[in-house]
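1st attempt posting a full record on here, be nice pls
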Amino acid sequence: MRRTASALCDLLDDGFRFILTHGNGPQVGNILRRVEIASDELYTIPLEVCVADTQASMGYMMAQCLMNEMVSRGRAELVTTLVTTVEVDSSDAAFQSPSKPIGPRMRRAEAEHHKQRDGWAMREVAVGQFRRIVPSPLPQRILELENIHGLASDGSLVVCCGGGGIPVVRDASGQYQGAAAVIDKDRTTALLARQLGVRTLVILTDVDHVYLHYGQSNQRPLETIHVQEVIGLLELGNFDAGSMLPKMAAAAEFVDASQHPDATAVITNLENARHATAGEIGTRVVK
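the predicted structure (as tokens):
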């Protein structure tokens, strides 16, 4: 996070202001593994509470590292972490078709053990290696949206919507209840960016560009690409569900629905964040 903070503060030095979201898959898996190991002595922790826990702990680390980096540059700003709740639809088809891997990889015998004892849905992610999969419903509403907007409007740097948000469903009487699911962080971030009316959505990942035919002899980077072309590529199944599909879908959703005439979504790696916001590298989705 210290390395990430340095790259993000470069953007502040360039005049950008940002709202920071993040993933939490490995950290949630870590908590669930600890729960499993201690299950003979301690109570279990529901999946949505794991999301809440990691939002707070990771937000604390991000805020501290960012503030310390700013101090080293002669800036003194507060970074606020907001534990964020996101409503999902209880009738979302994702609840019937789990797809989001969480937790560590395991061998077949261990996977079968969890399937029989705990009712986990499992998926083979590599030959002989399995992971637990959980529902990943689409985000419908960010409950703390106005709070985020207020903090950002007052000049605060905000960390929010960690891990896609804590998933909750609402019943006919208006009561909320946690859902055992993980919302895709990129889709929630796109929803947040769209509703706040920001100009630029930046998705930081492991590669400098999104590639067509990635890893093959004919791979090619996507540079500046219009949103309708992205939608066409998505419909043709050009991106892998476990990597670039949610990122490209989120980028397309943001640009297509944004009211900002210059709405742009940028996908690149951390090392190139500064160059990507300057339009020098990365995949840029535009209207």
